[in-house]
Design goal:
This protein has 620 residues and is an alpha/beta fold. The protein has helices at 39-63, 96-106, 109-123, 143-155, 157-162, 228-243, 265-279, 336-349, 361-372, 378-386, 391-404, 406-411, 448-465, 507-520, 597-616, and strands at residues 164-168, 172-177, 186-191, 218-220, 252-257, 286-295, 302-305, 308-311, 313-322, 415-423, 433-442, 469-472, 475-478, 484-489, 529-532, 535-537, 573-580, 594-596. It has three domains: 1-82, no CATH class; 96-130 and 140-290 and 572-616, 3-Layer(aba) Sandwich (Aminopeptidase); 313-489, Alpha-Beta Plaits, CATH 3.30.70.360. 34% of the residues lie in helices and 17% in strands. Strands 1, 2, 3, 5, 6, 7, 15 and 17 form an eight-stranded mixed sheet that branches. A hairpin with a 3-residue loop joins β1 and β2. Bound molecules: zinc ion (ZN).
Length: 620
């Protein structure tokens, strides 16, 4: 239903919109609506909407506003799309005055310098996450987190005085800001740990990695971008709201894990259990964690804001061969290592295939790019539009996207990479054991069970033809007497692809509307329009890289964010940080991590507006 949109004309719903089951999804329409329409009324309304849509489309075409010479086929940001609906900028209404006052304060040099100091102080405490750390409370590697806690308590006395602060598993931090109503709380998360600085690279840093040095533009140091800035932004947002007498109607919970860069189990894992026990399953209205940001690479002063609404799953699989030993002078046709090689060859001979499903996040992202990105290749734009209801175009689009780059292909499929292999102990002894570990990132449309079945399909013929028993995740699939292939989880626990956050009217539109309101009133990002589109997160890489495959740098790590522990808390999980690539001096997880100081302030503005907008969504 394309409906003309004007910035700022949204009304605030008197009830939580996403708590009204069955409420119709009407992009860019006023939020208040009568849900008790009769069928006849609905039919008439539908007809009117169709006529209105046709009128708008015709009108736009006649005015030529869809097209200019260098942006053929492009929708203007103020024109709505049925496949990538846009939501208007959303400003606090009840708290208009406090919002304006805070924007004034955020614009002051004094506030900026104090905030920079707060982040610099946090950066100076090297809370490094190590893969081989001992248990919390025993290994001294965790001690720096106690230092960070002391620092935060000194830096934010008002927050610690007014909010309930609970420590979970010693170093997890949960701040509880009680609201005056029973409305579901909002949860804002970040992580206290940073990736270690490689000692051999220290000399490459322009300013020392734990200096927190501010050079007038950049705040330098490990954690300045990932993720100390988000900790400081959340606490400063709450501190500033407290100082201006705001008290929430909706409870605000802030939670900081402390091992996101390894697995998150010690921090977010424990915090998740605590929050579920305290607030119940699905006890939160929404969650905002670190994630994707604003992408400014689309030309024409357009930013794409792409909150990540899902993440791929994860599994490391060990394929192990056990076979009879003996002297190498009388070898069989295939030793254990040979059999393992056959298994690896079979695995690589039948890789997973890319899928592009209309109900999947990659498809939604690509539609947003096709509709609104001036720099998207025209042949892909045309294909994308046809693919909305043409199956053969959908297949061609999938193939075209898969060929664009290995990274774009990876986003559409479960990936496999044989990364570790070992076996054999002596040159004159037949190996009795050999194994390989295969790393998998599981596609949004797939599952751990499908991946396990794939191993059965691929390895059964190998087992049968060499008289081997095949045991896959505990199930005997084929029996044989010449040895065994055992397929099992190599490390950790299998992780399913995340649930998909609903994208429509509700939390998604509030987050999107708040992003637009923040950018629309920003000096740093002035003169730009924002397009909102959902994305699938593979660490910092998203489907936006479709348009700019060369633009991927540090992205392809693809471990999941802390949100993988929080699935039970809410259906509405957004992985989004209000920051552009150019606000990072040199990316994250590498040398010369530095954040543009002005971006720190923008992050605070976004979170403050978000708290106010979400708070108002519960009240008339
Ligand atoms: Zn992070």
């Amino acid at each position: 239903m394309p409906v003309d949109a004007k910035e700022g004309d949204r009304k605030i719903s008197p009830v939580l919109p996403w708590e009204s089951p069955g409420a119709a999804y009407v992009p860019n329409m006023p939020a208040v609506r009568d849900v008790s329409l009769s069928r006849a009324s609905k039919f008439i309304l539908s007809c009117l909407m169709v006529l209105w849509s046709l009128f708008l489309a015709l009108n736009s075409l006649l005015r030529g506003s869809f097209r200019t010479d260098n942006t053929r086929g492009l929708l203007h940001p103020s024109i709505n799309s049925t496949v990538c609906p846009q939501w208007d900028a959303l400003y606090p209404i009840i708290n208009t005055q406090i919002d304006a006052e805070l924007d004034n304060i955020f614009a002051s040099t004094d506030f900026k310098l104090r905030t920079i100091d707060l982040l610099a102080g946090a950066v100076r405490i090297p809370t490094e996450s190590h893969d081989n750390s001992g248990p919390v409370g025993e290994d001294s590697v965790w001690d720096s987190f106690a230092d960070l806690h002391e620092y935060l308590e000194r830096a934010f006395p008002l927050v610690y005085a007014k909010l309930n602060v609970t420590k979970i598993n010693t170093y997890g931090l949960v701040y509880h800001w009680q609201g005056s109503t029973e409305a579901k709380p909002i949860l804002l998360t970040a992580h206290q740990d940073v990736v270690p600085v490689d000692p051999t690279t220290v000399s490459q840093w322009i300013h020392p990695p734990y200096s927190g040095h501010y050079d007038g533009t950049w705040i330098w140091g490990r954690g300045s971008c990932d993720d100390k800035s988000e900790i400081i932004e959340r606490l400063v947002a709450v501190d500033t709201l407290l100082r201006h007498g705001f008290s929430p109607a909706r409870t605000v919970i802030i939670a900081f894990g402390f091992d996101e860069e390894t697995t998150g189990f010690e921090g977010a894992g424990h915090i998740a259990k605590y929050l579920e026990e305290t607030y119940g399953h699905d006890g939160f209205a929404m969650l905002v964690d670190e994630g994707t940001g604003l992408d400014a690479n689309f030309g024409n002063n357009i930013y794409f804001a792409t909150p990540a609404v899902s993440e791929k799953g994860y599994l490391d699989v060990r394929v192990e061969i056990t076979s009879p030993g003996g002297h190498s002078s009388i070898p069989p046709a295939h030793t254990g290592i040979g059999l393992l090689s056959l298994a690896v060859s079979a695995i690589e001979a039948i890789p997973y295939t890319p899928e592009l499903l209309r109900n999947g996040t990659p498809f939604s992202t690509i539609q947003c790019i096709a509709n609104y990105s001036p720099s998207f290749p025209e042949y892909l734009r045309t294909l994308s539009r046809k693919a909305v209801n043409d199956d053969s175009a959908l297949a061609r689009l999938k193939n075209a996207l898969s060929k664009l780059s290995p990274a774009t292909e990876a986003l559409l499929m479960t990936t496999q990479a044989v990364d570790i292999i070992e076996g054999g102990v002596k040159v004159n002894a037949l190996p009795e054991r050999a194994s390989a570990v295969v790393n998998h990132r599981i596609a949004e449309h797939s599952s751990v069970a499908e991946l396990q079945q794939h191993y059965i399909d691929v390895l059964s013929p190998v087992a049968a033809s060499h008289k081997l028993t095949l045991r896959v995740f505990g199930r005997v699939i084929v029996t044989g007497d010449s040895g065994e292939i055992t397929v099992s989880t190599a490390f950790g626990t299998p992780l399913e692809p995340s649930p998909k956050t609903p994208v429509g009217y509700g939390p998604y539109s509030i987050v999107g509307g708040t992003i637009k309101a923040t950018v629309a009133t920003s000096k740093l990002y002035s003169g730009t329009s924002v397009i909102l589109g959902p994305s699938l997160l593979m660490r910092t890489l998203t489907l936006l890289s479709f348009a700019f495959p060369c633009h991927i740098d540090d992205g392809l790590v693809a471990e999941n964010t802390d949100t993988m522990h929080y699935w039970n808390l809410t259906k509405n999980i957004f992985r989004f940080s209000l920051v552009t690539e150019s606000d990072h001096y040199n990316g994250v997880h590498t040398v010369n991590e530095a954040l543009r100081a002005d971006a720190l302030i923008e992050g605070i503005r976004f979170l403050t507006k978000l708290i106010l907008n979400v708070d108002e969504s519960a009240l008339s």
